[in-house]
């Protein structure tokens, strides 16, 4: 049996510029990180003693004989692109809920490609994992997705990503002093809003508006440069990151009406009232996880204000999607 463990991600700045409709003409750049919360998938050969050929376990159990009978769109797309010669059992679990702004869909696709490739004896490089996932999500599954989630899922790390025409992607690790990085992570608080949404539906509206939101996207890309300068410059207070997050969220809200809701706006206002310098709804928007920059003296106040919400502690994942075989994997949910 083989297992894959693939990280979710937190995107800090530049989101929106990673849509091909934007970066094919204007270039794009984003800054963010893979986190130590994961999508887990297992695979094994299914013995030929059953009335079905494949068993797929996710939010439901699918027992099918042909690949085109698989209802899970990502499983169907990956297996049709990399067809198996034997019956398979595939099982999925995750540390955090899907449809919550952490790139879980792309993590699943990257993790499954990595898993089946290793299971077939044809392991793939991290760039190849990302490129295949982008192709399957965009061109085969016809999802309205950007190109950053797949890269963090494949590579891991705290990175600046740059996008150019022809799907040329550059991954540049952030060179931040260890103490300063620890301080930055300590000032970031992650809460689940309790609201779910389909990212592709929100993203579709944002993509349709890109030609009319040129100034907003350009400014959000500039914030990638500004945030990087703050992070690598010991003389600049990290509190500037909080203020940049606030400004970035205000711009992101202008990309489409569906990015925020009255409830999310209330959460943002409550966090600021409790002492957060800034924050954003992660992913496409519309629900899911919220990230806030909160200095130490205000963290208890923010937690008290959000005592009905779930807070998630996190660190940076440095490995990206990883495959284990046999009993060598630990921490995989059953």
Shape descriptor reads globular
Q: What is the CATH class name of the largest domain?
A: Alpha Beta
- As a whole number of angstroms, the C-alpha radius of gyration is 20 Å
Largest sheet: 8 strands, mixed
Find the count of extended strands (DSSP E, 2+ residues): 12
Q: Output the CATH topology of the largest domain.
A: Ribosomal Protein S5, domain 2
Structural class: alpha+beta
What is the domain total for the residues?
A: 2
- Helix/strand order, N-terminal first: EHEEEHEHHHEEHEHHHHEEHEE
Low-confidence stretches: 328-334
- How confident overall, as mean pLDDT? 91
Known CATH architecture of the largest domain: 2-Layer Sandwich
- What percentage of amino acids are in beta strands? 15-25%
End-to-end span in angstroms?
13 Å
> How many individual helices?
11
| Helical content (DSSP H or I, runs of 4+) | 25-40%
């Amino acid at each position: 049996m083989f297992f894959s463990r693939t990280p979710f991600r937190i995107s800090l700045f530049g989101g929106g510029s990673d849509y091909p409709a934007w970066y094919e003409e204007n270039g794009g750049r984003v800054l963010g990180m893979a986190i130590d919360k994961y999508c887990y998938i297992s695979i094994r050969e299914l013995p030929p003693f059953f009335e079905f050929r494949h068993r797929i376990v996710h939010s439901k159990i699918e027992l099918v004989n042909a690949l085109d009978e698989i209802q899970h769109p990502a499983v169907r797309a990956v297996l049709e692109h990399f067809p198996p010669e034997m019956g398979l059992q595939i099982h999925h679990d995750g540390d955090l809920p899907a449809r919550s702004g952490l790139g879980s869909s792309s993590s699943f696709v990257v993790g499954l490609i990595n898993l089946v490739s290793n299971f077939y004896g044809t392991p793939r490089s991290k760039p190849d994992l990302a490129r295949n996932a982008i192709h399957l999500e965009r061109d085969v599954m016809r999802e309205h997705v950007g190109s950053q989630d797949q890269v963090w899922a494949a590579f891991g790390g705290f990175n600046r990503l740059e996008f150019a025409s022809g799907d040329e992607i550059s991954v540049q690790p952030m060179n931040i002093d260890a103490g300063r990085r620890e301080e930055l992570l300590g000032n970031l608080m992650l809460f689940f809003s309790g609201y779910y949404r389909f990212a592709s539906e929100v993203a579709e509206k944002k993509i349709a508006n890109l030609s009319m939101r040129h100034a907003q996207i350009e400014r959000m890309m500039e914030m990638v440069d500004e945030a990087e300068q703050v992070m690598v410059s010991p003389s600049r207070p990290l509190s500037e990151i909080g203020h940049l997050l606030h400004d970035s969220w205000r711009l992101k809200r202008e990309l489409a009406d569906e990015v925020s809701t009255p409830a999310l706006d209330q959460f943002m206002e409550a966090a600021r009232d409790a002492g957060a310098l800034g924050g954003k709804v992660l992913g496409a928007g519309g629900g899911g996880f919220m990230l806030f920059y909160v200095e130490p003296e205000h963290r208890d106040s923010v937690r008290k204000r959000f005592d009905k919400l779930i807070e998630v502690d996190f660190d940076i994942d440095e490995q990206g999607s990883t495959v284990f075989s046999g009993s060598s994997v630990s921490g995989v949910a059953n």
